[in-house]
Write a structure and sequence with these properties.
about 280 residues; alpha+beta; globular; PH-domain like; 2 domains
């Protein structure tokens, strides 16, 4: 994969940022001016259905903002810049805050009858979120990308083909002859450290998956219990007065709603990921 932390295209017309997509949801027109409302919804998702992140490339071009999947570079979304409203950067003084260094932007397509805004939230990672927002605002205003990214241009492809690699036995003999024992020991030590770090990362990811699966199962159990209680209440004609009975039925009806189909897909993917990590 290319390293896309912050890159400008060779022609200087586009700038790329590596981000983590956290969530996309529908908001009101008023909420597009309040990024904290989006963060509140994000927090609710984290505590209920969980958040499924995706590593993406945010490409800010002259007329469009394009979101690509990192690795495959397949295009996920393409938004005309005039459709992007109120990009915000959310930064917190406490670096350990979970919802820190976020890019929040809303997309409104005024050509559609149902032009309900969609809010997108990204984690900016190693690049300050405000830098990404500034580049979006520059592009919307027709200004070129900021010059500080010029020293990180993507190099052009080499003009000459790569040299033929040496044969395996020659390379192996040269390596052994030129490498003292202490270097081999150091390499093995570094490999062990890297292996331990990968194991620790996989363990943390597995724990997150288990937590989300447990929350999802708890949601299903609660919905099933509420449904049974609702059915029992409907069969029981006596008891509480009509108004109190209706309020209880309304609460149970909301609580008995099953998760959305996309939530089932997400949790199935986490099951698959968990099995791969085990």
């Amino acid at each position: 994969d290319r390293n896309y932390d912050a890159r400008m295209s060779p022609m200087g017309q586009s700038v790329f940022f590596e981000v983590d997509h956290l969530a996309t949801f529908t908001v009101t027109h008023e909420e597009t001016h309040n990024p904290e409302a989006g963060v509140a919804k994000l927090s609710t998702m984290a505590n209920t259905s969980g958040i499924w992140t995706m590593k993406c490339i945010l490409a800010i071009e002259r007329n469009h903002l394009i979101i690509k999947e990192k690795g495959t570079e397949s295009m996920l979304d393409c938004f005309p810049l005039p459709n992007i409203y109120n990009p915000f950067a959310i930064t917190k003084s406490e670096k350990c805050d979970v919802y820190n260094n976020l890019v929040v932007l809303s997309v409104i397509d005024n050509t559609k009858r149902d032009n309900q805004p969609q809010m997108h939230i990204f984690l900016a990672g190693s690049i300050p979120a405000q830098d990404i927002v500034d580049e979006i605002l520059n592009a919307k205003a027709g200004r070129p990308p900021t010059s500080r990214f010029n020293n990180q241009l993507i190099p052009p492809p080499p003009s000459q083909p790569a040299p033929e690699p040496p044969s395996f036995m020659t390379a192996k003999s040269s390596f052994i002859a030129a490498t003292p024992d202490r270097t081999l020991g150091s390499s093995l030590s570094g490999a062990n450290i890297l292996k331990n770090e990968n194991s620790e990362r996989d363990g943390q990811l597995l724990n997150h998956c288990f937590d989300d699966i447990e929350k999802f199962v708890a949601r299903l159990q609660k919905a099933a219990e509420s449904y049974k209680e609702l059915e029992r209440l409907k069969k029981d004609k006596g008891g509480k007065e009509k108004r109190g009975r209706q309020e209880m039925e309304d609460k149970l009806t909301m609580s008995a709603l099953p998760p959305k189909p996309q939530d089932f897909v997400d949790i199935f993917q986490k099951f698959k990921l968990s099995f791969n990590l085990l």
